[in-house]
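Q: For a teaching session next week I want to show students how multiple molecules come together into a single three-dimensional assembly. I've collected the sequence lines for a complex. Could you give me the predicted structure tokens for the whole thing so I can convert them for display?
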Amino acid sequence: MLKIAVMVSGGGTNLQAIIDAIDSGKITNTEISVVISNNKNAYALERAKNHNIEALCVSPKDYTTREEFNEALLKKVQSFDVDLVVLAGFLVAIPDAMVDAYENRIINIHPSLIPSFCGVGYYGLKVHEAALERGVKITGATVHFVDKGTDTGPIIAQQPVEVLENDTPKELQQRVMEQAEWIILPRAINDIANGKITVENHNVYRK
Ligand code: GAR
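A: Of course. Below is the structure for the complete assembly, covering every listed component.
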């Protein structure tokens, strides 16, 4: 049984997609041990509680320095003895010490086709604003392992989504979630839980 921690910052629709996929059997051999938010008002925490999943907040606001927060966050994750950390809309940089402790055991969902519209400053709605401003016709989402860079880790899966004329950033965000994120993130978790994924030289292979 793969034990996962899901890390969130906001609405938690990706968390919901994971919960639903476990309930429906699309994800097997997996249990969510804990949901951790950096933001105590994140609706994602409610979603977890509604499903009797332990939900807690570790906020940078409660620590004097970033180092103290980073240390507390890592300790909290480690206390649940999880096999995989899933960043599902977690908008905080993962401390290097956590990447070292969980090498190729942290995955992230990003709302673009990496390497487009990713890196420092590209998160949430900003990604879609940038894509619309550039006039791309195809965007999408990417699931990747987390390394010490921003959105630079080995890519597990990508799903393209068409940009429509007159899309607003919010409309595009919603379509990317529905047609890409909520599909490829649960699928990647299921693949990892069932031993289908290996990483070699920064590349992901499916068995
Ligand atoms: C999602 O679109 C996710 O891809 C994005 O934040 C949103 C969270 O929504 N993550 C990033 O931009 C990470 N760089 P949710 O809370 O409803 O799952």
